Amino acid sequence: MKFHHEDTKNTKEPRRKAFLSFAFLRVLVSWWWNSPFLNRFRAIARKEFIHVLRDPRALGVSIALPLVLLLIFGYALTLDVDRVPLVVWDQSVTPQSRELEARFQHSRYFSLVRQARGYGEVEEALDRREAMLALVIPQDFGRRVGADRNTQVQVLADGSDANSATLAMGYAEAIVRTYSQEILVARVRRQTGREPVPALELRPRAWFNTEMESKRYIVPGLIAVIMMLITALLTSLTVAREWETGTMEQLISTPIRGPELILGKLVPYFVVGMVDMLLSVLAGRFLFDVPLIGSLWLLFGVSAIYLVGALALGVLISSLAKSQLLASQLAFTMTFLPAFLLSGFMFEISNMPRALQLVTYLVPARYFVAFLRGLYLKGAGLAIFWPECLLLTLFAMAMLALAVLTFKKRLA
To answer: Which of 55, 73, 98, 194 has its CA 20 to 30 A from that of 80?
Structure first.
């Protein structure tokens, strides 16, 4: 009986401690939930939610606009150069020249739009932009190929678009080189009766984006650019609207403090931003067929940090501008243009001048674009992109601090 009594006593002791800990935690949570800070914060957040819900058109635009931008840019922006319009002037008109022409015509990279009968028609096609590339086959092409003699073909390109012209000429060079190698192999086989063994064989293999589709590279970066623009525009009008409608004086006369006002105004737009993020991810998956290889939880966790920084930047702009028109113009200039041009979304940062490369370190979209592309294409996580996530966190904290300090100055 003694041992049984001691066992019961030892069992009750941990239960009593757990009960006391739970009761203390409950009291602490209740005190925090009913604290003046949280009450004022909830009041501001409720006011902003009511304002958002009372304007269904603005709410619809804030949700639909990211999808519209994603659809427009997603389908309009492409780095692929396919179906290049081609004009051919075949002066030889032999089986050998028709075989070369067929190589171009049956390639997915070229589309034959015209058969020319002289340099005048070739020049006209390039001037009118009917064709980007012209293939000129000399008159003695078939005779020289049949006699196992070297010959040349001419490729003319419209260099107005230097990038597309470079890619198109590379495709043309690859087709001509392949045809030339087949002719050389047939020649060696006739002379020696054996297949030639190449000294070097290239076996290329693309990782992460095996189909080499540019949309899988563009869509993740596009999500980062659009989210930066939309969230900053949403909050860039909040404080400025209070000044223009005359309600800021009423807020100043209340006990509300800067952090409570800033955080309360951010909450409803943060919810809208996360809904926009979810819709963008779904659109990327089901409309553009861009699968997410990495963690979905990590995607939305880092996206939340990114959105907080962008929303706080919008509030900071709104506090400084005091005018909705000026605030919206500043938000567009300070978010969309740097995110589009200096984040590495469209242009490689390493190809920029050194001075601009240093400026890109101040653009938060640079880190989010790199994170999204790594998560979407490679499935990489925090082990690889922890520096980008850390910098995004520092950016969000800095923007929140600046927004609070700026609003305190306005109160004074």
So the answer is: 98
